[in-house]
Write a structure and sequence with these properties.
72% helix; MetI-like fold; mainly alpha; cell membrane; single chain; 0% strand
Length: 297
């Protein structure tokens, strides 16, 4: 009797009815993605959008120059292009541009090397971190152009002074961004590296640099921009180096001769070199590293 009562008190287990979904016929229709129109395909090309922006700026430049109608004050875009092609044809602009870029590469390379040493020292010890933070706080706000008088006394009128101010303008921007990128790396990644037996230079090379590379690349871009404008400003002040001078001295000479279209042609050369470096070199590095690793869309 007790067993019968126990069976009666046990809860009943209801079975869930099976649900069978029949395949519906699509009547021969298949779902496909909507193809993009030609205009949408063109709009998705970043290089084409940038060319369009440059074309609009050139039209605005031309319109404003024609409105003023004074080449001494603001030459038109067409007259600037004419002066630019004349300078390219007679070899003046390429020679001046190469003179500036050559000095820039030396200063930029030395600045990267010094920033690497300072950042490595900062990651290796606390005193190194304190030293980098102190030096960055002191020297990063100091304009490189303010060091020109000292550069002239120490290195004379020439490439040595230019390289000195370039190293100053490059080092602190790269070191600051690189160190900030290293500090932003999560502890989990660092622990993973140590679990694999990495330490010191191996940890920096295989864990910290890839994880902090967006900040490192930003520092390289900022350092390049600082170096480029510092070089042009330095050449405008004491410009003759290696006997002929660079683009800054070319601009200064033509300003003194009131050849304003040539002044704008020199400025246009500076802009073109900046666009080439940004869109061909830095974006290529970014595409093969940050975007490929999934750090950026």
């Amino acid at each position: 009797m007790s067993s019968a009562n126990a069976l009666a008190e046990r809860p009943r287990v209801s079975t869930r009815p099976e649900i069978v979904r029949e395949r519906t016929e699509t009547q021969g229709k298949t779902v496909v993605e909507k193809p993009l129109s030609t205009l949408e395909l063109l709009y998705n090309q970043a290089w084409l959008r940038k060319i369009l922006i440059l074309a609009v700026l050139a039209l605005v430049w031309e319109a404003y120059g024609r409105y003023l109608d004074n080449d001494l004050l603001f030459p038109t875009f067409t007259s600037t292009l004419a002066a630019f092609f004349r300078g390219v044809a007679d070899g003046t602009l390429p020679a001046r541009a190469w003179g500036s870029v050559k000095v820039l590469l030396i200063g930029y390379g030395l600045g990267i090397l010094l920033a690497t040493l300072l950042t490595g020292l900062a990651m290796a010890s606390r005193i190194g971190t304190d030293f980098l933070e102190t030096m960055t706080s002191m020297l990063n706000p100091l304009p490189a152009i303010a060091l020109l008088p000292l550069a002239l006394i120490w290195f004379g009128l020439g490439n040595g002074s230019l390289v000195f101010v370039l190293v100053h303008s490059v080092t602190w921007a790269i070191a600051l961004n690189t160190h900030s990128g290293f500090l932003s790396v999560s502890r989990t990644l660092k622990m993973v590296g140590r679990n694999y037996g990495l330490g010191g230079a191996g940890l920096i090379r295989k864990i910290l640099i890839p994880a902090a590379f967006p900040s490192i690349l930003t520092g390289l871009k900022v350092g390049w921009a600082f170096a480029w404008r510092t070089l042009i400003a330095a050449e405008l002040v004491f410009g003759v180096s290696s006997g002929s001078g660079g683009l800054g001295w070319f601009i200064f000479e033509n300003k003194n001769m009131l050849d304003i279209p040539n002044v704008f042609a020199g400025l246009l050369t500076v802009i073109i070199i900046g666009l080439i470096v940004e869109n061909l070199i830095f974006q290529t590095i970014e595409r093969h590293t940050i975007q490929r690793w999934g750090m950026q869309a």
